[in-house]
Amino acid sequence: MRLTLAGIFIVTISTLNYNCLFSQGLNELDKRNGFQSIKLGTKVDSYYFIKCDVGLSGICRVDANDFAFKINGKKVEDIDVSVKNGYIVSILVFVRDPEFGFENFLINTYGPPTIKGEKSYCKWIGKRVSLTMESYEGIGSNRGIELMYSLYNASTNFDKLPSSDF
Fold this sequence. Notes:
This protein has helices spanning 2-32, 102-110; strands at residues 34-35, 38-39, 50-51, 58-62, 70-71, 74-75, 78-84, 87-96, 115-116, 121-125, 129-136, 144-151. The chain has 166 residues and is an alpha+beta fold.
């Protein structure tokens, strides 16, 4: 009987540690609030390397050649930024032909995905930020990974929020 209670105790503690470990991963997603130096909910005109010809709303492009971004040593090819009322609401990152375990890298960073689909589709959902990873197959070196960092509620009216909310 004593071993049974000890076994139950160990399983309970292990489960709590497992859950706490992964909830901290999603907290990390919210804490990072975007991709590297590009932060969600910030004004797009505060980034000199984002080229925006659409005014206050639309898709803007980061010139990845002028500003070298990397993920785990792998060069980022393209970055698109969605803007609403002058604020960044999502960041789409393209990595071509990844040679490392990209999904494992993200799991080590944010914990297991909240949603796991078929063929390398994963989604992590924090309290304010979500991250979607999807692989795509192309011809030759056109295969790769797309990462979409988004504000979880992208319909927010940014003009009425104080900057401390981000």
